Amino acid sequence: MKIYCSLDEKEKSSLEDIGISLNINDNKIFSYTFWDNIKSLPKFISNEGLDFLYISLFVFGIDRLVYRESANDSWSRDFQVYIPVLNLEVWNENKKLVEEMLSFLSGDNWNIEFRKRDYTDKEVDLKNNIIQENCILENCNKFCMFSGGMDSFIGAIDLLSSEEGKNIIFISHYGGGKGTKEYQDILRDKFIEKYDLSKENFYSFYAVAKSGVEDTTRTRSLMFFANAIALSTVIDKEVELIIPENGVISLNIPLTNSRLGTSSTRTTHPYYFELLQNLLNNLGINIKIKNPYQFMTKGEMAQNCKDKEFFNDNIWNTMSCSHPDSGRMNGEKESCHCGNCLPCTIRRAAFKKANIIDNTRYRDTLYNSGPTARLNLNSYKLGLAKFNEKFAFLTIQKSGPITKNIDKYTKLYVRGIYELKEFLEGLNE
């Protein structure tokens, strides 16, 4: 499918057979709040940072607007995408890398044609008026992604417990549902109170494709990171981008065929991180990606949290579920963990591993709420039954190439499997 991307409604394509024309500044089609949340900057965002941000928004919009079922195999779509950029030369030099990174992330086939653009009128106005002195970003050298989930909650606690929090920026993103935003806001207020922060330490961005039909949205993470990456270019020093996620989820090993390969996220897979870091280096964006929990299970993260009291008091305000708003269709007014999806199951296993009483509200704790819950439980048990520790060093390669720290990743995966197994076996006790 040919997709023509633009930032200006006046720009029309002369190309034939365009399937979708995507202008992300057309509020009838797409909405995002990146500029709404920025009141001051020490300097304007670099051309490469702007390009990266808009590319991520275009990619997310495309991902949402095109059904996977329309693909020949009902999953991997073929995209021919035309994207405007400020720095045409550098993007053409990195075209193959961008395509490889996107294809790995989403499981689709991406072919991108870049074209030269100038600043939009809005960008010119922002560049002339948004720059102010005494911006909090001037003194920051660490950004931490903050989703409102259990892992990012632990990551923020550990970071704030070990160094001065006023120089750390937390970046959040939310979409159409309410299930994520409400948890992010609760935790933000808790952190501000506990660690003497201000709201200026927190940036929250929103983006939605208003006619989106595809729910897998595997490219959302790129947009999540792009908000932080674009912001980092206003700082005249290296920025560390901390992405807290347990290493088992990062490996994205399919437990069963029902979650094979592209059906689950590769957001923090080591190979994806390597591609992304290489691209940022090539773009001259001075940011280093780091996951401090690359070799920890979720349970080990909980066990080793640096402020156990704050963790225990507030862990219930985190959201791990893959579909927290699903209960609203049945009349529920508040978002809630389903209790039986894989993220919920891994969360529950982590509490057991860390020997913490789990007071999280789950819709279903016994996997008996319906056929989907029973299918989930049976698939987890089948995956565990087929697990062979002797071949774990091969299994970790299923979702993407692992070329470094193979022994550490293998041992991590084995620990993660046993963490999950102990929890599921305990359901019958």
From TrEMBL:
It comes from the Bacteria. NCBIfam families: QatC. This is Putative PP-loop superfamily ATPase. It comes from Clostridium perfringens.
